[in-house]
């Protein structure tokens, strides 16, 4: 019987650290207060971590905030992807990358 060490399995997953989650959840809280977003999901996969944002629970995600560490030295490891798969912003600093969604919040409040 081949038993894998559970600790080793978790080491192979990519996840958001506390600083990254603080940036994402701050934006999420503001969008919930504006009535734009209502639910989220976090996926920690082998090669990436994904924070998905939903307007309603049963829908496809409006946006995905993804972390791909293997792209750190190329295009930047963070990306914001729209529901249709279009990459809205990609970069090295998460706070700068999620600003593309903050601009949408300003439009919502200004209307």
From TrEMBL:
Highest taxon in the source lineage: Bacteria
Pfam families: DUF2794
Classification via InterPro entries: DUF2794
Protein's name according to its UniProt entry: DUF2794 domain-containing protein
Origin species: Roseinatronobacter alkalisoli
């Amino acid at each position: 019987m081949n038993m894998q060490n559970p600790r080793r399995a978790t080491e192979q997953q990519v996840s958001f650290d506390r600083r990254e989650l603080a940036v994402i959840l701050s934006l999420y809280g503001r969008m919930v207060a504006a009535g734009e977003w209502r639910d989220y999901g976090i996926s920690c996969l082998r090669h990436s971590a994904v924070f998905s944002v939903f307007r309603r629970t049963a829908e496809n995600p409006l946006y995905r905030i993804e972390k791909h560490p293997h792209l750190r030295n190329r295009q930047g490891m963070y990306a914001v992807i729209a529901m249709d798969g279009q990459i809205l912003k990609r970069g090295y600093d998460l706070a700068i990358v999620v600003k593309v969604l903050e601009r949408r919040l300003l439009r919502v409040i200004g209307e």
